[in-house]
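Backbone shape codes:
***
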Amino acid sequence: MRQIYNAGVTPQEKIVAVNKRFGNTGIQSQQGTSRIIYDALPVLNNGQTTFRFYEDSSSRAFPFTNTGSDGNKLGVGDTMVLGSVMFYAVQRATATGIFSATQQNLIQAGLINSIAYFNFEIANNQVVKKVTLSESNPNYSNTTSGTSTNLVLETEIVIPPLLPYVLELRTPADLYSILGAPAAGHVWYVYAQIIGVGGIIAPRTTF
């Protein structure tokens, strides 16, 4: 299925087609770019099994997110195709703010089994529903062996400008117990990254 889709429609063509339906006819003249947008939430020892990334991300700053003041909305004229998703956890020292050099990838390391899943919402509509974090299925991997660190979506989803988006991760047990207690004086943070191609405003020229 994925091979047929890639052969027929490029992500750039889908961006243009979807945005035209919203009246954004100028998207086709904008600058193409690569986008990786991330957000982080603390993993506390409180039994939490659901994490809603990007929601209220405008209240967080680097290095916990790179969404900026736009929060969980792309800026005016910006758009993006959601091609893949990545989840990983890392420890941060409370006193110094230094992150551990070792991160736990939730897909590659097998820390979350195949019954954990994520949803993706745009403007309160689910556009990706209950996709499991199964590393054994090559359809969700960048490699045929199924050991990639990110999940590649079979259907690439367009995120239009100015519409709020949320990525929800649900785990079968509380994530703190899955990761284990952090080192003394440290806190776990779980990161989500959405990865794809996009378009940004090019007021002078398109490169």
Notes: Confidence is low (pLDDT under 50) at residues 1-7. The chain has one domain: 2-199. Residues 2-199 form one domain. Strands lie at 31-43, 50-53, 79-93, 99-105, 117-122, 125-132, 151-159, 165-170, 186-200.
